[in-house]
Amino acid sequence: MISQQEFFARRQRLLAQCEPNSVCLIPAATLVTRSRDTEYTFRQNSDFWYLTGFNEPDTWLLLSNHERHGGSFVAMVCQPKDKNSEIWHGRRLGAEDALGRFDLDEAYELDELPEVLMHWLMGHTHVYFGQGQNTAADALVNAAMQSLRTAPKEYSAPKAMVDIQPTLHEMRLFKSASEVAVMKAACQISASAHRRAMQFARAGVFEYQLEAELHHEFAMAGARSPAYSTIVGSGDNACILHYTENTKALAEHELVLIDAGAEFMGYAADITRTFPVSGTFSKPQKDIYNLVLKAQQKALDMLAPGVTLRSVTERVIETLTEGLVALKLLPGTVAQNLETEGWRQFFMHGLGHFIGLDVHDVGDYRMDGEDRPLQPGMVLTVEPGLYIAPDAPVDEQYQGIGVRIEDNVVVTATGIDILTNDVPKTVPEIEALLQR
Ligand code: GLY
Ligand code: MN
Ligand code: MN
């Protein structure tokens, strides 16, 4: 649980990092049409959620550090209370109740938004805003700026528009203890969903039925939604990196790759496991699987504060290349294949990414043109894979095998904690669960 005090403290920390006399404008997400007059389930904008924990659409958070307010003034523009709308579409908090709930200095209703924006911008020197994320919000902010620029002389428009994202996203990159606890819960829920799907798998079951098992387990544990579209790829579908059709029936001799994670209290988990439908890995499947596992273990052993993701990736690529050469999947020597990047045809994505409120989370991987060393509080995925296309120029026993193994880790003061240890990962562990 993230407390109201933590949300409050985040807003204060953001304000403290802005230039003096700045205003920050953070719009919430809006509903998106799914078909005709129905909408996708609402998902709050991650930046807005990070600063408020408020799940209503079309709201705005406004922050000012102007000296006339003693350096901190916080307001929200809320959907108005509306009996008819609430009967049809659901409850609204309303401006009045928002005041107390979020400890605001001021709350307004949505129909006042254009005037509110103009008044808020007036007399400030800098506006912090994430231009380009939301066209409607961009238009509102631009209109308010333009009205001020063309208004009588006593009105003054801010001199500078600053992208709010670098400051805010640097904050989001470092997870607090309570965020790590929520992410750990998201990972545990996702881990039990993977175990459930593994146990349900058998020949003839459809990929989407494994997806249903995963989503059932998510919801029963309090996570209503997956954090991204669930991938269940059996056979050579595992070689399609973002395969989400999930329409094929599993066959006895195949591997299944499941990449699925729950979203819990806004935070994502992102786990991949690969296992045999029959309950037993064949020799070539085991060869590829153990190579990916070895590469992942190498990465997990190296990850620590001060280490760069690039240096770990380089060691992972060496490990994979050594294995691919030994299995004769790559002709030539290890050195030649590192030189020509021969491994790229079988490992075509990155080793991992930051994860948080977004599955591919915000935060800069490079700073001042250099790869950035890992620091405590960063949470990331570690996900090497090998994908041998069905038409790859290799021994046919390996064709169509796709394996990815993905875990989530938090960087600590001394190393890492693995948040996703509750799903079997070695060949004997997986076979034991499947054969139970
Ligand atoms: N599930 C997408 C990824 O692993 O990055
Ligand atoms: Mn994934
Ligand atoms: Mn991932």
What features would you describe in this structure?
With 436 residues, this protein is α+β, with helices and mostly antiparallel strands. It contains 13 helices and 21 strands. It has a 6-stranded mixed sheet, sandwiched between helices. A hairpin with a 2-residue loop joins strand 12 and strand 13 (267-268). It is elongated, with a radius of gyration of 25 Å. The two termini are 35 Å apart. The relative contact order is 0.11. The model has no long low-confidence stretch (mean pLDDT 97). One manganese (II) ion binds at residues 270, 353, 381, 383, 406.
State the main characteristics.
single chain, 436 residues, alpha+beta, 6-stranded mixed β-sheet, 3-stranded antiparallel β-sheet, 13 helices, 21 strands, 37% helix, 18% strand, binds glycine, binds manganese (II) ion
Short characterization:
The protein is α+β, with helices and mostly antiparallel strands. The protein contains 13 helices and 21 strands.
Detail the topology: elements first, then pairings:
Layout: H1 4-17, E1 22-27, E2 33-35, E3 38-39, H2 46-52, E4 60-64, E5 73-78, H3 83-89, H4 94-101, E6 106-109, H5 113-121, E7 126-129, H6 135-149, E8 160-163, H7 165-173, H8 177-200, H9 207-220, E9 225-226, E10 231-234, E11 255-260, E12 262-264, E13 267-268, E14 271-276, H10 283-302, H11 309-326, H12 334-340, E15 366-367, E16 370-371, E17 379-382, E18 385-387, E19 402-404, E20 407-411, E21 416-418, H13 427-435
Parallel strand pairs: 1-7, 5-6, 7-8
Antiparallel strand pairs: 1-4, 2-3, 4-5, 9-12, 10-11, 11-14, 12-13, 15-16, 17-20, 18-19, 20-21
Helix pairs in contact: 5-6, 8-9, 10-11
The structure holds glycine and manganese (II) ion (2 copies).
The site of glycine has 5 residues, from loops.
